[in-house]
Structure formats: C-alpha cells, structure tokens
Design a protein that fits this description.
By secondary structure, the chain is α/β, with parallel strands linked by helices. It folds into 2 domains: about 290 residues, Rossmann fold (3-Layer(aba) Sandwich), CATH 3.40.50; about 160 residues, 3-Layer(aba) Sandwich (Rossmann fold), CATH 3.40.50.980. About 30% of the residues lie in helices and about 25% in strands. The protein has 16 helices and 23 strands. The strands form 5 sheets. Strands 4-3-13-12-14-15-17-18 form an 8-stranded mixed sheet. About 55% of the residues are buried. It holds the Pfam family AMP-binding.
C-alpha cells in the first residue's frame, strides 16, 4: 500500500491532510474509518522523510489547541511527589519546545542515544517528544529495572545521557542512574524531574523554567527513530504460559538487546492497533501499560497522537482511582495487560468502555479467552519485533495466527508467514526494526522477512498458545 492508497484512505473519511500527512479533522464516517485514515502517514513511509511523534502532536495542536493531550493519574503526588496535571495539546507543545532547547544546550552530537527512564506520567511523554525534537534517539529504559540491567542496556545502546525522575514511591531512580553513570564513562549527563534530584544531576524542572524554545518548529524535521530493548530467552528455557489469574508474568532473563525502529515503523505499529481499537479524535485512551517498550508505546502515546485522542496513564495500579476515572462521562478505551482480564471481567468496567484491549507478551496462552466478545481487542507482542492486533468478534488473533494470510486484511501493515520450522516471521511497515550493532542501526527493507522466536500451537483451526520455538 503506497502513498496513493494512503491519500485515498484520508479522502475516504473526508479529512484534509496537513503537513506531516496527518488528518486531524473529525471524520463523518465514524471512528472505524478514522482508524484506517490514521494509518495513512505510516503506509506512505516510502514517499516521505521519517516522521516522528512530534509531527503528530503538532498537527493536532494546530487544529485543536485546547484539546486535552495528557492527563495524569489522580493521586500522582503520593508516589512521585509531583502534582497531577492535565495538559492541552498547545501547552504540551510549548513545554516540549522548552525541554528540547535545554537538551540542545548539552551539545550532544546529532542523533545521540538518550535514555528515558520514567514512569508513565505526562512528564515522560513530554520528555520523549523533546528528545526527538532535539534531534536525538529516545532509548526506552523501564524505570523498574535494577542497576545491573540498566547498565547492560546503557552499554548496548551506547547511551550518552539519561533523563529520569527523582522519586517513584520509595525508589530513587535518579540515584540509581548516577551509579550506572559511574560505571559507564560515556554516559555524560543525568537529568531528572524533582523532587529528590541528587547533587550533580541536571534539574529538568529548572530547564523548563529557564528556556524558551520554538514551539512552531515541533515535528518539522526528520525524526531519528527510537530504541527499545528486547529481553533474552529465560535462563530455565521455555517457560509455560502463565495462568490468567496468576498475576503479572516475570520478565525473561538475559541481557537486553537494543532494537532501533524509525518513526514511520512506530506510526505503522500504532496504526495497526488503531484499526481494531477504533479510537476517534477527542476520545480518551486510558492505559495501564508502561510506555517503556513497543507494546506500551504503540498502544499508548503513539496511538493517542495518531488518532488525536487524550492519553491518560495509570502507572501505579489503584482500583479506586481506576474506577473513578472510568466513571467520568467520556468515550473511553482501556488498554490493560492480558493477565488482568479475569479480574476486570468481575467488575463493571466493560460496560463503561467503548473498547478494551488486552495486551499479551509472547510466549502466551491464548485459550480461555471469551470468543466473539464485542468491544474486546487482543494485542500480541512478539518481543520488540511486531504487534498483532484483532477484535474478538472480527479477525481474532487466534484465527490470524492459525492462518497467517488473514493478516493482509489489516491493510498490509503487518504480514505474517509460518516458516518450515514452525516459527512465525513478520514483515511490513509496522515491523521495521533492527538490532543495533555498535550503535549503528541496520538499514533493512520493510519487504524483508524477520523471523521471531515463536511458533503457534493450533487446535481446531485456532491458535491456542504461542511458545518458544
């Protein structure tokens, strides 16, 4: 699907393309048509320079400056010492410009890898966009990682600066990253939002106060992409898929591998999720996933900006806060980890939502899901390589994994094949990721098949599980 088809998708919903290729006018054809139109920037990748998330935010800010972009979780001050703030698209663009100007004063070489180690709060989204605007490569570092794993990731991506926060509950991420910097000499700068900013660490709050950036320039230059980290095979071999009621599955062991993808590939991955989610401009996207990997970013920040929605993150799970948020009379779409499905099914959440997306991380068990349930979307993450999304009442992921040719019905953003050894392979605009080698990203074609580590277990023509090959 090329640029002509992308523009046709925009025309089908009656929306006018703006610079960067983003259609931001509400379509008369409804939310489903908007989701297809949202894919237009991604599938036109071959005809334009790589586009970043900043261009998406700027496009919405131009047309709808007072629309709410980011909403913090109520009670945020209790776990990070910072007030909960609601940001409009116009206000967000201004703060991003200030942070980007402060980063430019660090005099890092263009396209330098810059770590981002924060919980899912508004400051995290603003900082990621500022790193991109400053011409650098955001590297997503989970704030829950310990010092040893952070050091491995910093070395793998050759990170030269890290932006973080001073407090997360009783944890002190900025202090931990200072210890990482002491062990990795090329890491020259650590900056953090307060409180509890250690001596020698740059205060990001002060940067926002001291600098004035060019908000109008947001998203006008080519984006350098981003880096996320894939974790290795568990030390004990293939682990069984966790019980749906067993809680969050543990992360695999092994050193993190740095995976780079450009802005077009990220936009395509988000667009592939938007097609079944059917998020309309101005809707609220409430996510319980951290924005620290592909599945969290594509179903969160990238999806919200691509659809012109409002993003609300709940990085610290609080049942009362979640229930109160869902009680607000807003068209809402919820993104949650798959292991929470059994618990959420016992609540009234489903009746208050337009859609709910359950995100699975391979290897995973897909049996036991309620089939054909309307309004429910499954998103399956294959490491940092690819995401597969589908509605249970139409093009369910279990059916697609059993017959990979069905993936073509999602617009060609993700294509799947089963190799002779049973492993699943992926290609397409949404799968354009490559492992960094000495800080250099490989130049691969979107037409190249990329094998995964997983095979599908089939029963009666449906995939019931994903296991390590």
């Amino acid at each position: 699907m090329g640029a002509v088809a992308a523009q046709a998708a925009v025309r089908r919903v009656g929306a006018a393309p703006v610079p960067g290729g983003v259609a931001v006018r509400e379509p008369p054809a409804g939310a489903a048509a908007w989701a297809f139109a949202a894919a237009a920037p991604a599938v036109a990748a071959a005809a334009a320079a790589p586009m970043g998330l900043g261009a998406l935010l700027a496009a919405v800010a131009d047309r709808h400056p007072s629309r709410v972009a980011f909403v913090d979780q109520a009670g945020k001050a209790a776990w990070c010492g910072r007030p909960a703030i609601t940001w409009t698209y116009a206000a967000a663009r201004e703060i991003i410009a200030r942070l980007a100007e402060g980063l430019a004063r660090l005099r890092l070489p263009p396209r330098s890898p810059v770590g981002l180690c924060m919980a899912g709060m508004a400051e995290c989204h603003l900082t990621l966009l500022a790193i991109e605007q400053a011409g650098h490569v955001p590297c997503l570092l989970p704030v829950t990682w310990d010092e040893a794993r952070l050091l491995q990731a910093v070395e793998a991506a050759q990170i030269q600066a890290v932006l973080t926060q001073g407090q997360l509950g009783t944890d002190r991420p900025a202090e931990r990253l200072c210890r990482v910097a002491a062990r990795y000499f090329p890491l020259r700068f650590v900056a953090a939002f307060g409180p509890h900013v250690p001596d020698g660490v740059i205060g990001l709050d002060q940067i926002v106060l001291d600098h004035r950036g060019d908000a109008a320039a947001l998203g006008t230059g080519p984006a350098a992409g981003l880096v996320s980290f894939a974790l290795g095979v568990p030390a004990a071999g293939p682990r069984p898929a966790p019980s749906r009621a067993a809680g969050a599955p543990p992360e695999p062991d092994g050193p993190p591998a740095a995976m780079h993808r450009d802005g077009d590939a990220l936009a395509a991955a988000a667009a592939a999720c938007l097609v079944p989610l059917r998020i309309a401009p101005g809707d609220r996207l409430l996510t319980l996933l951290p924005p620290s990997d592909l599945k969290g970013l594509a179903t969160g920040l990238a999806a919200a900006l691509l659809s012109g929605a409002t993003l609300e993150c709940h990085p610290v799970f609080d049942a009362a806060a979640l229930s109160a948020a869902l009680d607000q009379p807003l068209p809402t779409h919820l993104v949650a980890p798959a292991w929470m499905e059994a618990g959420l099914a016992r609540t009234t959440a489903q009746g208050r939502l337009r859609t709910i997306a359950y995100v699975h991380r391979a290897p995973a068990r897909l049996s036991g899901r309620e089939p054909g349930r309307p309004g429910v979307v499954d998103v399956v993450a294959f490491d940092e390589l690819a995401l597969l999304a589908g509605r249970r009442d139409a093009l369910d992921v279990g059916l697609v994994l059993a017959a990979p040719e069905r993936a073509a019905a999602a617009g060609g953003l993700v294509q799947i094949r089963r190799d002779p050894d049973g492993r699943l392979a992926f290609r397409g605009p949404a799968c354009g990721a490559g492992m960094l080698q000495r800080g250099i990203s490989p130049v691969d074609s979107v037409d190249e098949w990329r094998p995964s580590r997983y095979r599908a277990t089939l029963f009666a023509g449906v995939a019931t599980a994903l296991t390590l090959a």
